[in-house]
Automatic annotation (TrEMBL):
One of its GO terms (molecular function) is ATP binding. This is AAA domain-containing protein. The keyword Glycoprotein does not apply. GO terms for biological process: phosphorelay signal transduction system; regulation of DNA-templated transcription. It holds the Pfam family HTH_8. Signal peptide: none annotated. It comes from Sandarakinorhabdus fusca. It comes from the Bacteria.
């Protein structure tokens, strides 16, 4: 169920698969569910990090309290503080009444911050303070509000590389990375694909589509860059095109390539385009001189066409005015483009 504060699951999340990687994550979830320690869930986009966060909540003593989710990449930076900590009436334009933030909404339960690596640096400092003090302040208020939340964060980027780029705070990473769970890419657990396909088809309304063994073998051999999310979309596409039908390897191939089921497949590849003729003359060339001459010719023509107007010439050439002036100085071009 969606609310203004996030996602409150109405049914138990399911981590589908029998691979060793998924079995290990299930064991970790059962072991760590009742811990108060923050959890950082990493893995590629679409691999199911949100499912792990929901399971950690649902298996814990906090399960009777809210599970509140916030995608840090989906909220405008200037609204993120209000979304996370809430605001008082009149705190900013459009704040007509007071509103609790995600921390308050998750009191007693779990707060899940998805794509935390995309959080602006200024907001990272405020999140760090909230995690250290377990106190938040609404925007426009100085009244401290104590909160009791278990924080789960997820990211699909390398936070250590982000720290090296100056895009993520190292002290916040160490606060989040108390416990780490790593979701594998779907391509690293192909044995789970038949179970996932069966799980997704069972969730779809209407006559269920089925997949034969050859189709499943084909799916298990795919790279799935979008991971579980991409596989789910593929199953939904198969159901839409073939409701109640049976998917063989041929149909699966066409669906993977997003062809219409009625579009015939090309049996032979198109002929390669003819090679372009070489533009290089015989012998050696001075590329720097050639490029400078071409640049000078274009600038002179633009200046002459505009009557020496620098701004108009720069606009026509797709340059900043100051950039054009610098090029004119370097190439010794007079203001009107005349020799």
């Amino acid at each position: 169920m969606k609310t203004r504060h996030g996602t409150f699951p109405t049914q138990l999340a399911t981590l589908v698969g029998n691979s060793n990687a998924i079995a290990n994550i299930r064991n970790e979830i059962e072991t760590l569910a009742d811990s108060h320690a923050s959890v950082l869930i990493t893995g590629p986009s679409g691999s199911g990090k949100d499912v792990v966060a929901q399971l950690l909540h649902q298996r814990s003593r906090r399960a009777a309290h809210p599970f509140v989710a916030l995608n840090c990449a989906a909220v405008a930076p200037d609204l993120l503080e209000s979304e996370m900590f809430g605001h008082e009436a009149g705190a900013f334009t459009g704040a007509l009444k007071a509103r609790a933030g995600r921390f308050e909404a998750a009191h007693g339960g779990t707060l899940f911050l998805d794509e935390v690596g995309d959080m602006p640096l200024a907001m990272q400092a405020k999140l760090l303070r909230a995690l250290e003090t377990r106190v938040v302040e609404r925007v426009g208020s100085m009244l401290p509000i104590a909160v009791d939340v278990r924080l789960c964060a997820a990211t699909s980027i390398n936070l250590f590389a982000a720290i090296d780029r100056g895009a993520f705070r190292s002290d916040l990473l160490y606060r989040l990375d108390v416990i780490r769970l790593v979701m594998p890419a779907l391509a690293d657990r192909p044995e789970d694909i038949p179970l996932l396909v069966a799980h997704f088809t069972a969730q779809l309304p209407g006559p269920a589509v089925t997949f034969d063994d050859d189709a499943l073998a084909l799916l298990m051999a795919q790279p799935w860059p979008g991971n579980v999310r991409e596989l789910k979309n593929f199953v939904e596409r198969a159901q839409a095109h073939h409701p109640g039908g049976r998917i063989d390897a041929d149909r699966a191939t066409r669906l993977l390539h997003r062809d219409s089921p009625t579009t015939p497949r090309r049996t032979t590849p198109p002929p390669p385009p003819p090679p372009l003729p070489s533009m290089l003359p015989a012998g050696n060339i001075d590329l720097k001189t050639i490029l400078s001459s071409m640049e000078q010719a274009y600038i002179v023509e633009a200046l002459q066409a505009s009557g020496g107007a620098i701004a108009a010439s720069a606009k026509r050439l797709g340059l900043q005015r100051t950039t054009l002036i610098e090029k004119m100085r370097r190439l010794h071009i007079p203001p009107h483009g005349q020799a």
